[in-house]
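User: I'm putting together notes for a lab meeting next week and I want to include a structural view of one of the chains we've been expressing. I don't have a solved structure, so I'd like a prediction I can at least talk through. The sequence is below, exactly as it appears in our construct file.
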Amino acid sequence: MTRRLVIFGTGDIAQLAHYYFGKDPRFEIVAFTVDAAYVREPSFCGLPVIPFEEVAGRYPPDEYEMFVALSYAKLNAVRKDKYLETKAKGYRIASYVSRQATVLNDDHIGENCFILEDNTIQPFARIGNNVTLWSGNHIGHHSIISDHCFLASHIVVSGGVVVGEQCFVGVNATLRDHITIGERCVIGAGALMLADAEAHGVYIGAATERSRVPSNRLRSL
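Assistant: Thanks for the context. Below is the predicted structure for the 221-residue chain, given as structure tokens.
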């Protein structure tokens, strides 16, 4: 049976969710929803936008599923709150896992996950609820990505790593094997993590400095 789906959100992530779920023949997207205060237009991507306060009356949870398509705002707290509110309404929460991802962990993947193309999830790894894995990441064997995390692109999580709840990991970060990243950490783009990180830590990779030689004086280009 086709699974009928309502998407929470009307921003860029929601538009991407509409694109990806729309390519999956298992799903039929029927509407979008946001809090009434954020309804700007009556439709989005050609589908109706329903106030979240009214959605259960129009699309009852015993007949429809929902996906919360929000970013990492406030260190994933906004997405976490809406995910929990949606569950409290009684909805089954869908996940999207790209058919172009390599998933070898016996589908130990939670609800409301958004796992895009070219991710590799190795055996015995576990992905919690409400986790976003943007494209091109490596999740090593026996690693755990806890609930409400957002991992950007081209991240290497080596084997046996634990990433705590509500973490954000930026593009091209590397986490060495058998370390623990505490909850609500921010691991910046290009960061190299070689040891455990305490909760609420912020780790910023070094930025590339501008050369003193301007581009019009480079002889080799």
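A couple of points you could mention at the meeting. Helices lie at 12-22, 55-58, 77-88. The radius of gyration is 19 Å.

User: Perfect, that's what I needed.
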